[in-house]
Design goal:
Shape of chain B: globular
Number of strands of chain B: 8
Largest interface: A-B, 79 and 54 residues
Number of helices of chain A: 20
Largest sheet of chain A: 9 strands, mixed
Strand content of chain A: 5-15%
Helix content of chain A: 40-55%
Largest sheet of chain B: 5 strands, antiparallel
Structural class of chain B: mainly beta
Order of helices and strands of chain A: EHEHHHHEHHEHEHEEHHHHEHEHHHHHH
Oligomer: heterodimer
Distance between the termini of chain A: 51 Å
Helix content of chain B: under 10%
Structural class of chain A: alpha/beta
Shape of chain A: globular
Strand content of chain B: over 45%
Order of helices and strands of chain B: EEEEEEEE
Radius of gyration of chain A: 23 Å
Chain lengths: 525, 140
């Protein structure tokens, strides 16, 4: 008999990156790589679990920026071309390595993998990945949830509130546009929670969100079940707490599963290893980049790398899946007699960890779901909504400000590298609200300018820009994107205020920053 | 046209305003702007709202001489407390406030008292058969 539940939550997000002005864009590769290595493999994995009749539950939050990119015909074209190239490169690798059986086997593995992804994308899904995700959603086994419109870090985006409300409203509306139903769950970007946020979520009809562990355990009163039962916030929205043990087992760079020496090494890639004349068509001009073809395993804490052995890696993934399930059973066994409702372990991860960073991650998840279903011992996987439907009576707790970032609060998004963005963002949100109120009956060409200003503002609010400025890689890009969106916002709002709207500029900005075609500026009211 | 755009964001917006933000419960950040002609030395002051005799009373926690526009990190603030900041001019006759910030509540750093705490989290973690790797991936 089952005594408790495991809710794996995969949060999928990428910033909105789309550069038709360049023949090739380095940053668009984030999307191209994550599609091939994470999103499509996860989609295939869930589909195969369904096809095999596996009883499982998983929750997946999808950022509206990512959904917009998946639906964008221009990016779909670029992705199709990227896949063609990838298949071509893998086929050349099979030929090039024909006298090196060990590497050749790996080259064939990549060729097969890329051809499979191409088949899923082009033939099976007809490029419509969001449609395929919607079908999984309808199955009831994969619950989809939304997040902030452009993944703004909500505790800092706007102390006065309108920026936060706009992000939440658009996150909800865009989800409904994509999947035809309102989302029940809302992923707080970076698990960033600030006092009062639950009221905004409640106003938009959200039923639950997820907190970092201490966001719940430092709540008032102390939740008697720790993070092992959800709580009800005073606004009526439910809050789940992130489990620490499952976080550490997968996330920890030193002890986590993905660092195992038998797993594939992420950094050693033929994009850096092979001759310039050979690899040049598949990298970024003069710049060497990851191609996705990697022949080595982590091996150890040194530069010496041995060849990757997929059989050993699968064995290791199986051991890790066994270990993961074993530990969940013990957690649940311990807590089940001590809690009012059956224990629930909430294990959220970035979706891109699985496949992109941790190559074997999708295998691991597949093994975990199958093992739990096959053995039906103590633990069952579930979606967050399914758990709430079964156990709606919860303790009332007021959560505490928190995030899953370094040190548990806002430092990653507010420090000497990125604090300069906030005066602009805050001023812009106030200005936007003022203009929406004062231009309710404005002619269409003014409304179009106002709508484009709203697009530029939400794009500037993305958590990614301050995050990248802090992380120190591709800082120039984040800086440039922030200044560009804020600059366009200021130019558009100045036009509206002076009554001199340059429609050609509005059109050009709209063609370029084309996120949320049906955006309604009332999100800022 | 669009691709030759060059933008310089304004250094200030011509508003008397001070905004208080939280880095973590023990570190706050304020940015401000004071328009108009200086009427003294520019100062930013941080207040903690304390409760005394059932009333909320502001308690001056820090004051620093600053520039007319700028930002500042306040350190050693307290968890589970309320703060606000003021920007203004320090004169011989006292402080002339130009702008007051939002009120910011810092979260707790300790669990709330007087509740039944569950036993320490179950420690059933079984070591893996292989030694943990030192590999660091670039996940968050």
């Amino acid at each position: 008999m089952n005594k408790g539940y495991l809710a794996i939550v995969l949060h999928a997000h990428l910033p909105y990156v789309r550069h038709p002005e360049h023949e090739r864009s380095l940053e668009e590769r984030w999307f191209l790589e994550a599609m091939t290595e994470s999103y499509i493999p996860l989609l295939k994995m869930f589909s195969s679990l369904l096809a095999d009749g596996v009883d499982f539950g998983v929750t997946m939050s999808l950022s509206p920026t990512l959904l917009s990119m998946m639906k964008d015909p221009f990016l779909q074209d670029r992705y199709a071309r990227h896949l063609e190239q990838l298949v071509e490169l893998a086929a050349r690798e099979v030929e090039r390595t024909k006298d090196q059986p060990q590497i050749n086997r790996l080259a064939r593995m990549y060729l097969e993998m890329f051809e499979g992804v191409e088949r899923t994308f082009a033939a099976e899904c007809k490029r419509d990945i969001t449609g395929a995700l919607g079908q999984l959603f309808e199955s009831g086994r994969v619950e989809l949830a939304t997040t902030a419109a452009t993944h703004a870090y909500l505790p800092l985006v706007d102390p006065d509130g309108p920026g936060v409300r706009a992000q939440v409203r658009q996150g909800v509306r865009y989800f409904e546009e994509c999947f035809g139903v309102r989302p029940r769950g809302f992923w707080l970007p970076e698990c960033g929670y600030v006092e009062g946020l639950e009221k905004v979520l409640a106003d938009e009809g959200i039923q639950y969100f997820i907190l970092e562990h201490h966001g719940l355990t430092l709540g008032a009163p102390y939740p008697r079940a720790g993070t092992f039962n959800p709580v009800r916030t005073p606004a009526g929205v439910y809050a789940f707490g992130r489990d620490q043990e499952t976080a550490k087992q997968v996330w920890s760079a030193t002890e986590g599963y993905p660092g195992d020496y038998d797993y594939r090494d992420f950094y050693r890639d033929i994009g850096f290893d092979l001759d310039d004349s050979y690899i040049r068509p598949y990298v970024h001009g003069d710049l060497r980049v990851h191609t996705g073809i990697k022949y080595h395993r982590i091996t150890g804490p040194h530069d010496y790398k041995e060849l990757y052995d997929p059989d050993r890696a699968v064995m290791r993934a199986r051991e890790h899946a066994d270990n993961f399930v074993f530990n969940r059973r013990h957690q649940i066994g311990y807590w089940s007699a001590r809690l009012p409702n059956p224990p629930l372990i909430v294990a959220p991860y970035d979706a891109e960890l699985f496949g992109h960073w941790w190559f074997e991650g999708p295998w691991f998840l597949d093994l975990v779901f199958r093992k739990i279903d096959r053995e039906r011992d103590t633990v069952e996987t579930t979606t967050l909504s399914r758990y709430l439907e079964a156990y709606p009576d919860c303790e009332e707790v007021e959560p505490s400000g928190s995030s899953w970032g370094y040190k548990g609060y806002n430092e990653v998004w507010l420090n000497g590298t990125n604090d300069w963005v906030y005066p602009h963002l805050h001023q812009a949100a106030r200005r936007m609200v003022r203009l929406v109120r004062s231009h309710a009956g404005a002619p269409d060409y003014v409304k179009r300018a106002l709508t484009q200003a709203a697009r530029e503002l939400v794009l500037a609010q993305a958590s990614d820009w301050p995050f990248i400025m802090h992380s120190g890689t591709q800082v120039g890009y984040a800086h440039q994107r922030f200044v560009k969106h804020m600059g366009r916002f200021l130019r558009l709002t100045a036009m509206i205020e002076t009554g001199a709207v340059d429609s050609a500029f509005v059109d050009a900005a709209g063609a370029h920053d084309n996120i949320f075609p049906s955006l309604d500026v009332s999100i800022f009211s | 046209m669009l691709y030759e755009e060059q933008y310089w964001l304004p250094e200030h917006y011509g508003e008397d305003r001070v905004t208080l933000m939280m880095v973590d419960p023990e570190n706050l950040y304020a940015y401000w702007e004071m328009t108009g002609k200086p009427a003294g030395r520019p100062f930013v002051r941080l207040f903690e709202i304390k409760e005394r005799y059932g009333k909320e009373v502001p308690d001056l926690r820090a004051q620093v001489e600053v520039a007319q526009r700028g930002n500042y990190y306040f350190h050693n603030t307290s968890a589970d407390s309320k703060y606000f900041a003021e920007a203004g001019w320090m004169t011989d006759a006292g402080f002339i406030m130009v702008a007051r910030s939002n009120v910011l509540s810092t979260p707790r750093l300790e669990p709330t008292a007087a509740v039944r705490r569950p036993a320490a989290a179950a420690m059933h973690h079984v070591p893996l058969p292989s030694s943990p790797a030192e590999h660091v991936w670039t996940g968050r």
